[in-house]
Queue: 2 jobs
Job 1
Amino acid sequence: MVGEPQDDCLFCKIVAGQIPADVVQETETTVAFRDINPQAPTHILVIPKVHHRDAAALAAAEPGIAADILREAGQVAAEEKLDSYRIVFNTGSGAGQTVFHAHAHLLGGRGMQWPPG
Ligand code: 5GP
Ligand code: ZN
């Protein structure tokens, strides 16, 4: 069923507690944890507990949870005392997506370039 946990999905395993993660905040619908390979002083992933392959698929199927991701990213940014930050949803392998369970990257704590690489 759409949204159900996938046996071969790393982030479903983190949601289930089968793989440890440095969790900074958890809600009924989301988990926020530190990226294992940080690209900025603060690099936190905010993921839905339900499985969807990317952010657009999540928003199409469960728009309320897509909104939860953005709200949570903002709350975690505030807790990390970031006044400027970037929220990134890599979508598709050509854009750098490697885990096909929707997730927001919350990046901050250093200057950011535009356009992104
Ligand atoms: P993507 O490349 O799909 O946009 O982002 C996946 C992110 O997950 C990468 O930034 C990668 O460093 C992170 N990641 C991969 N495996 C693990 C893991 O086991 N634990 C944590 N905390 N992050 C992971
Ligand atoms: Zn998953």
Job 2
Amino acid sequence: MELLDGKKVSQEIIEELRLEILQRISEHKKIPHLAAVLVGHDGGSETYVASKVKHCEKIGFKSTLIRFEDSVSEEILLKEVQRLNEDDDVDGILVQLPIPKHIDVEKITEAISPVKDVDGFHPVNIGRMVKGLPAHVAATPYGIWLMLQRYKINTAGMHCVVIGRSDIVGKPISLLMAQNTQPGNATVTICHSRTKDLKAMTLQADILIAALGKAEFVKADMVKDGAIVIDVGITRLPDATKKSGYKIVGDVAFNEVAPKCCYITPVPGGVGLMTIASLMMNTMNACKMRTGN
Ligand code: NAD
């Protein structure tokens, strides 16, 4: 069993981007600028946004954090997105999800200019990805793809089973794994909450991607010997021994599943860190697309 080490790979990507920024500075090229919009005070969202801003600083990107209270109206949020679309210095815009229920998340997503949509949630980017055209691919699926690429795992012809069909993980990673690229060229099965006999499906997986959001749901008896297991899940469980008061677990029961695997991602230290690295790559690409270099 070998760990797919998100910490190591994401650090490599961050370092490559940092060096690219030094090069861009010496060539007087534009420095990428990421604007993050955070609504409310959800603990998870605060942590994710703080980490994104910290990574921008590490690389040398500019970043701006715009905060609103939970009570902000849809109209004001839309106006802010429009302002960021029109701000020529801003290359990437992300609105941290979830946002309060009184705001239509689709309206906000579609208001972001597709060129600046570094989260890759805009229908234009999803459509372009489906067609195999250059696009901002959602950060988590792109992070998984990059991880497989960096470990030089030849996925062609493999059977990839994805548990979960969300717009931000399950659907896009299924498409990426099926497209004619390396990584890719896999035969993909998408499972979800209405799948009959999930275990019969997961036992066929050469690559199993768990993105259902249920702590330690995938047990050893659901995994084929020698499988590659990618754990996307992030669940906070109360843990009095931790300073934070909680521990993070994935969708896979790591200790019992890992010995059966050829490769497995840990949680934390796997897909989560790759998500941030790929967001940073999308931001760099957005800047290059906008400035033409
Ligand atoms: P979601 O709730 O939008 O979707 C979950 C999917 O799982 C649904 O399609 C549902 O049909 C399926 N599902 C639920 N129960 C199931 C069951 N018993 N059997 C089969 N399928 C089942 O979730 P999401 O936004 O895709 O996130 C999934 C998990 O990934 C969450 O834990 C989330 O926190 C995590 N996540 C992690 C990252 C990261 O960077 N690592 C990014 C996004 C999401």
